[in-house]
Amino acid sequence: MSKKTQTLYIFISLLIVVAMGFFFKYYSGPAHKWFNDYGAAVFYEIFWCLFAFWFFRSPSATIQIPVWVFIITCILEFLQLWHPLFLEQFRATLIGKWLVGTTFVWWDFPHYALGSVLGWLWLRQLQIKGYAKKSQS
C-alpha cells in the first residue's frame, strides 16, 4: 500500500473513531452512563493511537504507540487529582474536559487498557494491510 493510501485509511479510521466517540459520549439510551463515561474512553485511546500512527508508521511503532498512549492517559487520569488554578480553568472549557477530563475514577483504567489493546489491533491491521499490498506488487 502506498503511503498516500495508508494515510487515507488512517484518516477514514480517525473520522470513524471520532464519530463513534462523540456518539458514545452523548448517547442517551439504555446504559447511557457506561457509554458516556467509559465507552467513550475506549474510543479516546483508539483515536490517540491512530493519530500517533499518522506520524510514526514503523512496525515497532505499532506496538509502542498503544503502550505510550496508555501510559500518558493514565498520567492524565492521575492529574485529575491535582487542582491548580490553571488546570481548573482549562478543565472548565469543553476542549479541556475532552482532553484531560475533570474527575479521577479508578474504573477508567481498564477501559484505557481495552482501548489501547483495540488501538494496537487497529494499527496492526493497518500495518499488515500495508505489507500485504507491498508484497503483492
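Second entry:
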Amino acid sequence: MADLGRRGGGVDPAALDEPQLIKELETIHRTRHETLMYGSPDALDRHTSRMAELEAEYLRRHPDRYVASGRTRDGARARTCSS
C-alpha cells in the first residue's frame, strides 16, 4: 500500500480514508516529542515533513473545521487581559 516513489515512503495522505488519516495524525502527534528529543536529524526531518503532509490533507478535507475562540490571537489576548 505504500507509495515507494514518495520521499521516505509511506502512504500518500490523499489515499487514506478518514479514519486512517485521523489515526495517522494521532500517532504522529503522540510521537513528536520523542522524535524531537531523541531522533536523528534525518528522523526529525522525515517526521516533520510527514506531519506537514498529514496536516495539510486534513486541512484540505476540512477547510471549515471548528476553531475554538481561545485558539485565536484575539482569544489569547482576551485570556491575558482577563488574568
